[in-house]
Specification:
Shape: globular
Distance between the termini: 49 Å
Strand content: under 5%
Largest sheet: none
Helix content: over 70%
Number of strands: 0
Length: about 850
């Protein structure tokens, strides 16, 4: 598991570095090309460049696609990207020598083509370095480098223009950045030579009658509905995006006739666009993709852009074509389009490309992205020219943009529905069928499946069995029965799994016996094979080899955990133990979720016995049970006020649902709120006593008390969301966590939603910008009966004593205790504090401070 994480993490950083420099290139080239062109020719000539983009895209990307069938990915990428760097350098020389503004035309034409090809090369590398799961998990992080680089490029561009006074001088910086992008691709190839150069060309057999067979192969490839829908999706995506981009430039040119003002708007617009994209990629894209998968990935972009298109129609009708409202609407639409393209669309489409055989994947991707997208841009140019002849050209363009978005949405839905039937291809092609690359898919699926069965690789054989079963061949039972007697244990196990899953009792008994024998093997691979077969066995047979759940090899344990089912009560303890190991955490959490209520008694026992420091498997177990049941909720209700506040927060968060909590849970949450507010007054009192000047040794304690206050705030807000339902308070609390002008509205909404007494306790903790003394005053007024006797606000020695001695067991934090001991020692106050309770904690940090301080109370 650790090796796999390393195999994925290192490539992600290299690819993210590429996209960051790529973003700098895009920002600089976009600024200089658009500014030069719009200044010289105006936005009315933009549609003609779109047509040229289509023609140039077909020629250039077609050549790249043909080369991709026989040229290594890295050589091809370095050649194309390096040539672009040379072209940009030549353009700068021409402009510097007074060559004129005509250079902006080829720059504007090549700009979108370079963007598409750059992402083709990044995506091609990602497809070699990561599997499909890795792409879905990590590609948003890789794509985040592009807007980050674009922000850097936008800032750099503005600074360079300010220094030189000439936008054209950005071309030299663009050429240098493009050279750096090329160098990073070369360096990545040097870092991962085997993985990036594997299977870059067709196997030797595929070269036979190449001239005759390639056209037929391409017709078959793009004749598949799934691939055709990808092409249609990307064409409509580019068409809708290009129309939205034209509307931004057209309205910006109309609103800012001065070139300097226009350049300033474009720089600011580009910066905002990329900041929004970065925020979406960092905060939302990953969780959304993990939660909703490709359903969101392929539909979010067209749906959101369609909504904005209807907003454009409304703004044009109500405020007029020259209004700020329309400019804001088209700008917001384009910003949302870019964020969703970077955050969801590219990840999903790159994952879909992995469904193709590796030796044609790059060529197909280049064809779709490099030719289909420029063709769409050309179509947009023709449309804009034709629409410009109409009396209400702007309105007509907005309406056509809306219709394109409607069509794009329809194709997106069709693509997702086709993705379901294509899942077998999506699984079998990327890695496992590379070993059968020479087999014709249309006529040789059974041969490919048999090739996998005989490969000796367990995953490949399991896939081969699945393929044979999915074909519904009349001879499948005979085929599998023959393989069930194969002398090779890998083939035999794979066949028995398929037969047992289909209801063959004899095969099930034979498989159970093989699993019992394999579970005792000294070979970890044999034990892994046995564990992988557990999922088709009955509860009794799985219980008989329960030792696999505690196997010393993490891969064996993971495979066994994946086979745990709801009725495997004997697996409860091994599953909980596996939650404590990072290598088996994911599989154990899924197993605990499947066990459901069977885990609740064990969870309850651990919650009751958990003491600081809490074992890591306890909060992980609570998080794993993400399905609300009466038994789970009742067990969690009793531990909302758990002595360990961090663990209590996990309990509260797990009780959050869309609707308000049940009566008993609500009562427990209200009790927890009162306890948290009382503790907040203690923390704030100690902070006020520390003051703002900072005495010797105060910094660690001030930081620890700040963390304690932040924890209380999280508990209070989570408790209110659980109490009133996420549908009511979820958006409000989310807004409170994001700085900005909307925080005031969120606080207002919180105050209106909560009852007055509740609001008085919550708002002083929820609101930002309040000093500790202000928060303390507001909370003290809200607590008519605080239930605690605190030292005076000016009695720092009393507060240090209260924290260390903790007579009411109110602080319950070893770290805060250690920091208080350190502050007391630094101030010479440690001798007057009883440290027996602190010594009894057995905490290393506390013991270290006590040993260094040598207080008089120690023997």
């Amino acid at each position: 598991m650790t090796d796999r994480a390393g195999r994925e993490t290192a490539p992600v950083w290299w690819l993210a570095a590429q996209t960051t420099v790529f973003g700098i290139v895009a920002a600089l080239l976009g600024i200089v090309a658009n500014a030069m062109f719009l200044d010289a020719y105006g936005s009315e000539w933009l549609p003609f460049t779109y047509i040229l983009i289509g023609v140039a895209g077909i020629a250039l990307s077609g050549a790249v696609a043909r080369s991709a069938q026989s040229v290594d990915l890295l050589r091809l990428a370095i050649s194309v990207l390096g040539s672009a760097a040379v072209m940009l350098g030549v353009a700068w020389v021409i402009v510097a020598g007074g060559g004129g503004a005509w250079v902006s035309v080829p720059l504007l034409v090549v700009f979108p083509i370079l963007i598409q090809l750059g992402f083709v090369f990044v995506g091609g590398q990602a497809g070699r370095l990561l599997d499909i799961a890795g792409i879905k998990a990590h590609f948003p992080r890789i794509a985040a480098g592009f807007p980050v680089g674009a922000v850097i490029g936008g800032i750099l561009g503005g600074q360079l223009v300010g220094l030189t006074g000439r936008t054209e001088d950005l071309l030299l910086a663009t050429a240098l950045a493009q050279s750096a992008f090329t160098a990073l691709v070369w360096a990545t190839g040097r870092r991962f030579p085997t993985r990036l150069r594997a299977a870059t060309v067709p196997p030797p057999a595929a070269h036979v009658e190449r001239t005759e067979r390639e056209p037929r192969a391409w017709r078959r490839l793009f004749g598949r509905p799934f691939v055709a829908l990808i092409l249609g999706y990307q064409v409509l995506s580019a068409l809708g995006s290009q129309l939205a981009d034209f509307l931004v430039l057209d309205r910006a040119t109309a609103s800012f006739p001065d070139p300097a003002d226009l350049a300033g708007f474009l720089a600011g617009y580009t910066a905002v666009m990329n900041i929004v994209s970065i925020g979406f990629l960092v905060l939302l894209a990953g969780p959304l993709m993990r939660r909703f998968g490709l359903r969101l990935g392929v539909t979010a972009n067209p749906l959101v852009l369609m909504a904005f298109a209807f907003g454009m129609i409304a703004a044009d009708a109500l405020a007029g074509g020259g209004s700020v409202a329309l400019l804001a609407m088209v700008s917001a639409a384009r910003i949302a389009d870019i964020a969703l393209t970077d955050g969801t669309t590219r990840t999903s489409i790159n994952a879909m490309y992995q469904a193709l055989p590796e030796h044609v994947r790059l060529a197909a991707q280049t064809t779709v992205e490099g030719i289909g997208v420029p063709v769409a841009i050309a179509i947009s140019g023709v449309l804009i020219i034709l629409l410009d002849t109409l009396p209400a050209a702007l309105t007509a363009t907005i309406v056509v943009t809306t219709l394109v978005c409607v069509a794009w949405t329809w194709v997106a839905l069709r693509l997702y529905h086709r993705y379901g039937p294509a899942l077998v291809d999506a699984v079998r092609r990327p890695h496992l069928l590379d070993m059968a690359a020479g087999i014709e898919a249309a006529t040789g699926d059974e041969d490919a499946a048999r090739h996998l069965l005989l490969s000796g690789d367990l995953r490949a054989m399991r896939l081969g069995v699945d393929l044979l079963r999915s074909m519904g061949s009349p001879g499948i039972a005979v085929e599998l029965a023959t393989l069930a007697d194969d002398p090779r244990p890998e083939v035999r196990t794979a066949a028995l799994v398929a037969l047992a899953a289909g209801g063959d009792e004899r095969a099930g008994r034979a498989l159970a016996e093989d699993v019992r024998v394999g579970a005792t093997s000294p070979d970890a691979h044999v034990r892994t094979r046995a564990a992988l077969a557990l999922e088709v066995l009955g509860p009794a047979d799985r219980a008989a080899v329960e030792a696999l759940l505690s196997d010393p090899d993490p891969d064996v344990r993971t495979a066994a955990l994946d086979a745990v089912r709801a009725d495997d009560r004997s697996a409860v303890e091994p599953v909980i133990s596996a939650l404590g190991d990072a290598r088996t955490l994911t599989a154990a959490a899924s197993a605990a979720c499947r066990l459901g209520d069977a885990v609740v008694p064990a969870m309850t026992a651990r919650l009751e016995s958990a003491a600081s420091p809490v074992p890591p498997e306890v909060p992980r177990l609570v998080r794993a049970l993400d399905t609300s049941t009466d038994a789970r909720d009742e067990a969690l209700r009793r531990h909302i006020g758990h002595p360990d506040r961090e663990l209590g927060l996990v309990v509260i968060e797990r009780l959050i649902g869309p609707d308000p909590a049940e009566r008993e849970i609500s009562r427990a949450l209200d009790d927890a709120l009162a306890a948290d507010v009382r503790h907040a007054t203690r923390v704030l009192g100690a902070l006020v006593a520390l003051g703002t000047d900072g005495g010797p040794g105060d910094t660690p304690l001030r930081s620890a008390l700040g963390d304690e206050l932040a924890l209380i705030r999280r508990r209070v807000l989570a408790g209110r969301v659980a109490r009133h339902g996420s549908a009511t308070l979820g958006p409000v609390v989310t807004a409170l966590s994001t700085p900005g002008p909307h925080v005031a509205l969120a606080l207002e909404a919180l105050e209106v939603t909560l009852d007055p007494a509740e609001a008085r306790q919550v708002l002083p903790l929820a609101g930002p910008g309040l000093a500790s003394a202000e928060r303390l005053g507001a909370l003290s007024a809200a607590l008519h009966d605080p239930g605690d006797t605190h030292p005076a606000a000016s009695d720092l020695a009393g507060w240090l004593r209260d924290i260390v001695e903790d007579p009411d067991a109110a602080w319950r934090s070893a770290w805060v205790t250690a920091c208080a001991l350190f502050a007391a020692d630094a101030r010479g106050l440690l001798a007057g504090i009883d440290t027996r309770r602190a010594r009894a904690l057995g905490d290393p940090a506390v013991d270290e401070v006590l040993a260094a301080g040598r207080p008089a109370s120690l023997p």
